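Can't attach files on this board, so I'm pasting raw text. These are the components:
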Amino acid sequence: MHRPADLPRWVYLPAVAGTIFVVLPLVAIAIKVDWLNFWSLVTSPDSRTALLLSLKTASASTALCVVLGVPMALVLARSRLQAVRLLRPLILLPLVLPPVVGGIALLYAFGRLGLIGQYLEVAGISVAFSTTAVVLAQTFVSLPFLVISLEGAARTAGSDYEVVAATLGARPSGVWWRVTLPLLFPGMVAGAVLAFARSMGEFGATLTFAGSRQGVTRTLPLEIYLQRVNDPDAAVALSILLVAVAALVVLGLGARRLAGTEAR
Amino acid sequence: MRRIGVLAGLVSTMLVGGLIACSSNQSPQGNRIVVFAAASLKPAFTEIGEQFKTDNPGIAVEFSFAGSSDLATQLTQGATADVFASADTTQMSTVAKAGLLDTNPTNFASNTLIIVTSVGNPKHIGSFADLTNPGLSVVICQQKVPCGSATRRIEDSTGVRLNPVSEELSVTDVLNKVTTGQADAGLVYVTDALNAGTRVTPIRFPEAAGAVNVYPIAVLKKAAHPALAEKFVAMVTSEAGQKILDRSGFGKP
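---
Top answer:
Structure tokens for the assembled complex are below.
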């Protein structure tokens, strides 16, 4: 076994401090949970409706992220066009944008009076206050997560196999389906998992863009925000549920896949 | 290398120390009173605060404006302030029940609901019942927040059941949905409609009188300057203070 070089000892101090800083709030909320009534709190009709809506919308936006994000990531990783390189920071902007700002921006694009929204409205398509609006908001904030993680994987993997496949006579589409995608499958899963987790937690953009109506647009984070006023116990229980879902997703799939793609 | 390590350690110590110093600055000290006030009070209280500073030279007033329920939660979780002004009696009694009040709450203002529509009222809404017109997208506050409970009281007293496209978590969210044109109409407080100015068209309706929100104010037990805090409360209830509140759209308590 090769022993990695020793880190200087002082590095452990901020590392431990950082770890405590991240873990402590989660421990605090776990302590606060009324575990005796946990089940009844999270299975109340309001909570169930919100959780179900969150799972549905997060799945839909993850699918949308994969359909749009995989080609985006590959173009970013492989294209040598100057324009693509200039576009890259713009595409990744939602990553650092406050979600509320994202929501406002979506409003002015797809809202009833928005840039595109006004024409959609005329065509009889109204996304305002619909579940579609929630999916749009979630996709907007999650897409860069998938793109950035998959782009990294695609760069590390390189395009040697594709070149070989092409020299053997495979058409570009054939290479895409039979070489590129299978090779990048772990990276895709990791990106999709990240996008799903981000969508589950989406709050600001949803609230600003989609509104809050039970069973239609009120996702789990919105329900938590609402419950916290009158029923803090339920809010805490739901928060833990969201933490659990996120942890399951990240631990069960994400972390391993991410590590796998990094190592290649 | 060793020196860099020591340096990094120093920097992180300074960072943490800085954080601690910042947080200790938050507690009331010196000649400063801290006022926790409902978000809807922002324009009026900012003006009253300026007046208070001119009347009491050398005294600073620091405001924390947020939803009353958020402020009540912060107070019951140990935040320190001199004065609490709530947008409804429910949140004030939450704080009172926690034994955090120094004086009995005084009601100093009231607020009523009003319909706001897109500019020019293109959907011709004339009454509360009109909000149920087909093809109209109406937003209201969720029942659990104060403006939502007022809406529900009006629904109950009139027997008119609204079918909103969204039940927002705060009154500003309702207003935002109307000013951006997402919704045709919404129910907000008179003061919010006044704040929005020409970006909405306000429509008064008589049934609003059936759901008036009363604003109470009180000095907190943990006040660093109880005398100054009482002076501020006196100013809010004084004629000058009432005039400012009236200009912001508030009614008499």
